[in-house]
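step: validate -> pass
step: tokenize input -> pass
step: predict -> running
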Amino acid sequence: MPGNSFGDFFRITTWGESHGPALGVVIDGCPPMLPLSEEVIQEALDRRRPGKGGVAETTRKEPDRVEILSGVFEGVTTGTPISLMIRNKDARSKSYSDLARLFRPGHGDFTYLKRYGIRDYRGGGRSSGRETAARVAAGAVAQVLLDRLGIEVVAYTVALGSISTEKRNLEEIRQNRLFCPDNNAAEQMDELAAATRKEGDSLGGVVEVMATGVPPGVGDPVFDKLDAEIAKALMSIGAVKGVEIGAGFRAARLKGSENNDQIGPEGFMGNNAGGILAGISNGEPIVARAAVKPIPSISKEQDTIDIDGNPVKLKVGGRHDISAIPRIVPVCQAMIRLVLADHMLRTSALMREKTDF
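step: predict -> pass
step: emit ->
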């Protein structure tokens, strides 16, 4: 199976399945002499860990403890491949035995079987959202590099179902369990989530990611545009169905005089471009948004078929997250961290100017 690696100069390869003994990631290209510990990675993993309550109320209780297997010596990176492992502790494969012959609506069961002729029905195998734990771990390593360069990446919820906010008080992100920069909106989102759970249904939402401190001149103007790489990174997350950069789809409703970010002696007067022009960073904050679909596992009855094509009525039992939000927030953050780490290493002139490696 190809497609398990991401990046060129800062390259990651994830491995493992939702119900296997472990999952993890190998990171190649990380420079030496960067301080790195399991505690730094663990902080990021704890933000996406299952079983935290509220909207994210899956009964699977995973500690998600990371183990550094290689690439670190005496507290710093060595420049060799970094291998990270996260053991699965609470995988209950028997819970999926009744789904072995059924295709769950909204899941990858049907397409995976058509592609490979076999599928791991225990939680989706490689197509499970659990694979993203490895991405978050790798993203934490990428942030150590970005810290050296003064680049910060922050992600937060700006919509859950029909509730959205235009407020961006970043201090409030860690004051509510939805990672929302608006505590009042977060309360409304919680109320909507509770009502939706009673209906046996699920919710989608929107995650925004902002990167500050990215210097101008990062990225390439054709196929490796920085915004194209960001779009691919976010779209590679299973629940993401759309990506916007800057003004995004709103730009289609604007005139050129409204959409253009005019430039003065002190810099750009707006940021409809989302920090990127012609695929290259312009020094403004990079802003991207990811549209997240509702969790497909719901207790409402749905029509489907079995592997022989026979019609079946299906209710997905158990208590699942009713939204990928908020656990997907650190995943989106991690993917932007990986893109920026990769492109900063590509931009060798900037690296020589700002770093010792």
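step: describe -> Residues 5-354 form a domain with the Chorismate synthase, AroC fold fold (CATH 3.60.150.10).
step: cleanup -> pass
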